[in-house]
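User: Show me a protein chain along with its predicted structure.
Assistant: Here is one chain, sequence first, then structure tokens.
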Amino acid sequence: MSKKATEFQRKAMSWMYRGKEIFKPLNTGWIDENVACVREWVANIFFYRKGDTTIMVDAGYNYDRLAEKMGWLGIDPKSMHHILITHQDTDHVGAVEADSPGLFRNAKLYIGEIENRYLTGEVRRKVIYHLYKLPQVTINNEKVLLHDGQVLDIDGVRIECFLVPGHTWGHMVYLIDDKYIFIGDTLWFGADGGYSFISALAEDNKLAVKSLTLLEKKLKKRGLHPLFITGHTGWTDNMEFAFAHKNELCSPFKKKVHDPSAPYDAYDESDDTEENAKSGFLKGVGR
């Protein structure tokens, strides 16, 4: 399923979102000394490195160049033993689906217990304002099911799990070592700050907005100011920027919410090169 879904998105979504100035992925490279990303067309997957341990966050598309680009960063796919999954959409789990090349077949997956209901077939993922039902995803890796507020320790890496439903019913975000929050598809960064992610792809937009408000309150209550790292629009260390429009939706087909700096067609990754990946840290937004 993942290969067909990947090709469908590459063609159909490239056409659908071309010129909408919506997707602004990071190119392959390092955000800082701890966090690296690989670009897969419009999507980013991430790697958190601490000492001898590297943890992967999301598994992207069923993408032919993944091993190559990981090589640019000096990361061996065989060294991936732990993968945190924010949600089960194809652009976040394609590389661990049953029909993928199996780069990470021995890795343990961590996924929310509610999100896992998509994988068991108890619920079906719906997109395009609930008009299109996606095929069921099949994953054979060992899984660890997570609940809201759970704290993990993986080789001295502290991972706190926050349930942020709306885009999917069980979308999970991960706060790592209180310094980085991998936000997946809950926030979309426009030129003037963060919005609730693309409305056409949400299970429940009202719930998504409520979830963002709750997440902001939790972080502020604890005095945390992590780097916010998104799946499709880069990163920021500015919390006010990240939540600037948390009560508003990114609605590209109704209201022209856009970022003029976004590429015309983000599925064109011709500027994502090994030379650029090694030329310095990747810039954030809202700074």
